[in-house]
């Protein structure tokens, strides 16, 4: 986080098909030029000293990172808020606006398919639902996409995405609520595909080569303003248990205070949002969603599972 917040920008690379996103190489205090690999397709940022600068509108990714840590999920990549001044960056990146910068994990596993490189495995909605069903003594076939990812990972993902109302991964078609005409799923005519579940696919399902059984959560800005009457419960479909530690945190009544304590570490974000007073409405929204989720667990008789040490 210190590298992301304070590291000197030493190189930049455009990310194909992501116009307003830049990958940058960073040099920490004490590093020399030879310590830093270039942020180029060849350099690959393999030394872990790179970050992804995203749009000002993606700032909630920083909040998502802190929520992930407070809940003990530990599946989101480190993220901080930062203002950039480097002469290497385009003016739109150095105009004083606050942007999130996300750590670039050098070993994220991507499919070789150029049309589907935002996944580590290609998984359809119906395959996903089948994979979540109890199979007794029989296990999911190894030929099934993402079969190496255990049930607990999907439970963590569903809980996290529900609290933030991240639809892009599990429901990019907005099948779980009635979207407004301005929603991307409407503008791109994706919502129409809800009539045919066979066509629905999951996106941003990623793992690292160093830990292929653990999901990595990316693009987590979510929808802080998403109306409560339109909460997307489809994100929870098929999940029959949730991580005990995260559920205990939601029940504790301490979620808001611990989030404030964590967010205070990011001074840029903290001050830009007006400190605790400015952040409170956002945290209250997440807290209300947490109570709705707890009620959902109770009404559906869902259980919790103990987290593994890893």
TrEMBL record:
<dbReference type="Pfam" id="PF15051">
    <property type="entry name" value="FAM198"/>
</dbReference>
<keyword id="KW-0472">Membrane</keyword>
<keyword id="KW-0333">Golgi apparatus</keyword>
<comment type="similarity">
    <text>Belongs to the GASK family.</text>
</comment>
<protein>
    <submittedName>
        <fullName>Golgi associated kinase 1A</fullName>
    </submittedName>
</protein>
<dbReference type="InterPro" id="IPR029207">
    <property type="entry name" value="FAM198"/>
</dbReference>
<dbReference type="GO" id="GO:0005794">
    <property type="term" value="C:Golgi apparatus"/>
</dbReference>
């Amino acid at each position: 986080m210190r590298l992301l917040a304070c590291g000197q920008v030493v190189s930049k690379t455009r990310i194909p098909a992501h116009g307003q996103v830049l990958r940058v190489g960073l040099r920490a205090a004490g590093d020399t030029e030879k310590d830093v690999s270039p942020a180029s397709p060849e350099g690959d940022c393999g030394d872990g000293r790179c970050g992804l600068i995203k749009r000002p509108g993606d700032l909630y990714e920083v909040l998502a990172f802190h929520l992930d840590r407070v809940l003990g999920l530990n599946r989101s990549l480190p993220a901080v808020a930062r203002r950039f001044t480097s002469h290497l960056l385009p003016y739109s990146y150095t105009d004083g606006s606050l942007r999130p910068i996300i750590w670039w994990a050098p070993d994220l596993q991507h499919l070789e398919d150029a049309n589907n490189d935002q996944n580590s495995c290609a998984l359809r909605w119906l395959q996903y639902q089948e994979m979540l069903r109890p199979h007794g003594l029989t296990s999911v076939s190894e030929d099934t996409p993402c079969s190496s990812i255990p049930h607990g990972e999907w439970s963590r993902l569903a809980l996290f995405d529900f609290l933030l109302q991240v639809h892009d991964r599990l429901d990019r078609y907005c099948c779980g609520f009635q979207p407004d005409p301005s929603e991307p799923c409407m503008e791109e005519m994706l919502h129409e595909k809800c009539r045919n579940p066979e066509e629905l696919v999951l996106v941003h399902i990623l793992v690292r080569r160093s830990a292929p059984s653990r999901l990595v959560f990316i693009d987590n800005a979510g929808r802080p303003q998403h109306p409560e009457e339109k909460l997307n419960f489809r994100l929870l479909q098929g999940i029959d248990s949730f991580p005990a530690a995260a559920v205990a945190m939601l029940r504790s009544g301490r979620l808001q205070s611990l989030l404030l304590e964590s967010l205070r570490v990011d001074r840029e974000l903290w001050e830009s949002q007006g400190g605790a007073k400015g952040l409170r409405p956002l945290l209250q929204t997440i807290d209300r969603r947490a109570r709705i989720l707890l009620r959902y667990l109770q009404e559906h008789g869902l259980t919790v599972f103990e987290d593994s040490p890893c």
